[in-house]
Each structure stands twice: as structure tokens, then as C-alpha cells.
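Would you mind writing out the residues of a protein together with its fold in C-alpha cell form for me to study?
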Amino acid sequence: MNTLLITVLAFVAPATPSIPPTTHDLLTRAGHSADEFWKQIQSVNCVETVEQARLSRQGKVVYKQQSVFDYLVMIEFTPDDLVLDESRAVIPQPPEKKKKADEAKVALAVTNGFPAFELIFHPLYQHSFEYSPPERVLADGKPALLVHFRHVHGTRSPSVLKLKSREYPIEWEGTAWLDPDTYEVTRISASVLNSLAEIGLNTLKADVRYAPVQFKEESTAHLLPASASIEVETAHQHWRNTHTFAQYRHFSVDVKTEMGAPQ
């Protein structure tokens, strides 16, 4: 008896890459995540370490100084604006070796507010930027949504440069990476869109990274600032500041009101 064997070959089509969201969809979801980010960061404080470095023309460190702070962000929302106030309390460090007299005279750059880079996606500031359609990429081996952004001239900026009691709005352009599941920002790299050479600034670049922070009392982690690297260059000076954020913890404020006996 002859037996006919029929082999059925099943062809499995290769998986089609997920279609990235539209720009509108991304901004809607990223705007919600940015709003939640600011609600979350107001309830925590952390330890911030700041390394201020002066560089040579060749980019080598010629002097650096480190400071450690108890860091806290306070935010005030108004109907059409957001006011950010950073609080830093110095954490005393072990005595350093005596510095040379000329080291005390080294001019260093002061950089603040860079954890606020996520404001680029906040609903209050989305009209101030143009965004490219998102792309699905791998960043540090993990899936991410990559978006390019560019400030719209004449609109409000979330950042200002303070120089000699004057404020100059900064127009940023750069790239952001977002988590494709939560639409939280994981990294933003940006530089000044238009030259500020008229006030002596040749270069201003920033790279801010966010990392998951897990609190014992919560089941889900939150992406909070992990580091910020800022590079500033003028015709005669070159600086690089590095901020790192660690040891996040929730804090609470107890308000007690004592009422006297009725008159």
C-alpha cells in the first residue's frame, strides 16, 4: 500500500515594524506625560552633584570644582504659564586640600534649570516649537521614539540666559528620545538655534538624560532627571558643567494650625 505524504510548509510573514504615531498623537501623549512629570517632581527632592569645569582651547580640563546640594524643585502653575524655582541647600563635604591662590580667581559658569527641558513637550510650550514626525529607533539598546524639534522665532521659550541682570530667551533646536509605551522623555540633546555672538556667546549645548526611579511605596517607576551636561563657550572662555541627580526621596510638609479659645 502506497502512502502519500503531503508536507505542508507554513510560511510566516516577517513581522511588520510598528507604525510610529502621528506627530499630533505623540504631542498629545507626550504633553500628558510632561504634565504628570511636573506633578511628580514637585513631591520629591534629591542629592544634586555639580561639577564645574573650565576647559582649554583644545577642550582639556584645566580646572574643576565640585559641589553637592540637597535639591528641590518648586513649580507654580498659572492659566498660561509655569514658573519654576529650584532650591539648593549646600551639603557640607570633607575639607579639601588647600587650593592655590590663583585657583580661587577662576571664573566658572553657573547653569540652572536644565531638568526643566521636558517643558519642550508640555502643552503650555508646544506652540513654541516645530516637531518632526516621530521615528522608531533603538537608543542604548532599547526601543524609542525619536523626534527633532526647533523653536519658533518670536514665541515664548522655556529657557532664558541671564547676563548682567538682563534675560535673553534661548531658542533651542535638537533631538528628543521618548519611551514608546509611556511617552516619557528619556533624553534631550539640544543647542542654540541662533547665534548669540552679539552678547559674546559662541556655543551653548545641553544633553539631559532621565532614568527610572522606583519608590518603595509605589508600584511603578517614574522617569526623573539623572544627569545634565552643559557646554558654554565664548570668544575667550570654555566651560562644561555636569549635574547628576541621585538619592530621590519623597518629602512632605506638615502644617499645624493652633486655634485659640473663642473671644
About this structure: The longest strand covers residues 61-78. The first helix runs from residue 23 to 41.
